Amino acid sequence: MTWELLAVFLGSSIRLAAPLLLAGIGEMVSERAGVLNMSIEGMMLMSAFAAAVGSWATGNPLTGLLIAIVAVQPVALLQAALSNSLRANQIVSGIGINILVLGATTLAYREIFGARSRTEIPGLSKVTPPILGDIPVFGHAVFEQVWLLYAGLALIVVTALVFRYTSIGIAIHAAGAEPKAVEKSGLSVTAIRYGCVLFAGFMSSLAGAFLSIGDIHTFTEGMTRGAGYLAIASVIFGKWRIGGTVLACLLFGGATALQFQLPALGIGVPNALLIMLPYLLALLAVGGLVGRQMAPASLGEAYRR
Amino acid sequence: MTITNDIGLNCGKRTWLRPTLLVPLAAVAFAGAIGLALIAMIGVSVPNAIAAFVDGTIGSPYALAASLNRSSVFALVGFGFILANRANLTNVGGEGQIAVGGIAATAVALYGHVEGLPLGLAFILPTIAAVIAGALWGGLAALLKVKSGTNEVISTLLLSFIGVWLLYWSVQSPALLRKPMTSSATLPESLEIPDETKLPLLTGDYSFPVHIGLPLTLGLAVVVWLILSKTILGVRLRAVGLNPVAAHRAGISYARTVIFGLATAGALGGLAGALMLLGEQYTLKDGFSSGYGFDGLVAGLLSRGSVPGVIAASLLFGFMRSGGINMEMVAAVPTALVVVIQGLIVITLAGAALFIEKWEQR
Description:
The structure holds two protein chains of two kinds.
Chain A: H1 3-32, H2 40-58, H3 61-85, H4 90-113, E1 126-127, H5 138-143, E2 145-146, H6 147-165, H7 167-177, H8 179-184, H9 189-215, H10 227-237, H11 242-264, H12 271-289
Helix pairs in contact in A: 1-6, 1-9, 1-10, 1-11, 2-3, 2-4, 2-9, 2-10, 3-4, 3-9, 6-7, 10-11, 10-12, 11-12
Chain B: H1 19-41, H2 46-58, H3 61-85, H4 94-111, H5 121-148, H6 152-172, H7 213-230, H8 232-242, H9 244-249, H10 254-281, H11 292-302, H12 307-331, H13 336-361
Helix pairs in contact in B: 1-13, 2-3, 2-12, 3-7, 3-10, 3-11, 3-12, 4-5, 4-6, 4-10, 4-11, 5-6, 5-10, 7-8, 8-10, 11-12, 11-13, 12-13
């Protein structure tokens, strides 16, 4: 393997990890607060669709991104209401939302684009950060990425700081670990959990927009293809910590990038095995490769006052 | 986390006005109404769409048979779901279990030298292979849960993706199940299975091709009902579902119960795959499982834990799928509409659980 190929591999790993990273951090926050948000798959798909339509209709990818962010919030609100106010089974409601969004976006896509499917859609621009971009060989191949990725990374850093240094972080953590104590201290568990699910929706909308108008500049039916579930697996793999989740996402991104890289190197591994690889890794991860998992104590349980 | 813990068995109020019956009916009616509104919105004549829908479900003996065969598949996955769910296990892996069942059935039917066997073994052996494959696929999730506490929702989901890609691999690779490549135009699919390995049709007539999967499914419905309501196995599942610690104190093995629940659910999913392959499709192709695992899962959710409920929901979805396909062909309504309706049904029911709970506590 030459340096150039390594650089391309790293670059595409980061690019493929980006949607997982964004959605994964959102999911982590939501799970830390106690809500298992199975619907990030649906939220990402909704966003990918809304971003594509918005960008196509206005010709401006930034407007598309904003439309996507706005379009996902009702979905997130539905999930939050189901899992908090209505105390619905979080898994069932999440899967229901995913089915609904898959149907709705497919239907709407056919109605809007019809025969003009696979239309090229204006996409978000790429940037190369200074200094990093000047590194020989690696600079452009690795660091020339859609700006949304860098914005997302900044958000992830902010999230980490909030978790570590602010009372909001402590409250979120406590809402998932010991909700009764939170309520006794005068804060509302319900409000915290609503907020965290909406935040997960926001991060998922960035992830979905990255897929359709960041990465490939088109929308295809059901294009998330389980990325949301991989993001959930990355949270488990990362033991509900930001650093761990980021590493897990990079690992899944790298595993996905191998699909394109190994054939280029002339290594004959069945394509299907490579496509399967991230899911296999995720299964190994959730299956205890990382040791016994320490999930937030009240994860998945609706809070009863 | 209570969706189906105490349904069907509590004999307190035996009136037809039970919310467990009314709420699903209301959910279906609500989702159906939105479906009709959407049809009107996309500018298709509603009467035409309904006519196409009805025509696709019961318009011909063939349509009727196809709907019934499809309903059997959904029902098997649904039975597996409620059986495991009695132990508070949520099997979301029907799709992958169907896929590995289909792979195993194809492999044995094509390369197991079974076509000359007497007494129906030619199709029974591939079916058994599918059941075993499905049971292993479900059992794997159970093992992970018992050994490292892995949530079965995420593991069965990931196993579904792996199963579906395994199927893709099987039909892409000539070293596996792909038919011999005679030209570059050879499709990525298996050979057609020998006639002897196909499931016998009830009438023997291809204009009404209901196969023996239907009576088999009905027989299994009775078995699952018996297991859940009349046997010690059912009690164990229920005990583990309600309180694993108390169940352990009572001498019920958590590990064995979890493995039994998920492996049986997987076995039923594998069987569903066998019915699809040996009864209808006859060649293994990419996309073989075609979302049937998720439809079966939804049927299981809708039923709120009761066997008759699964049958009713499976018939509903079986006919909805057939009608949906015909609506797309005849009335230009995308089949995605049926998916929207299903999603709405699931969300409505999930949201109504609290309401049902409160009603029953009155």
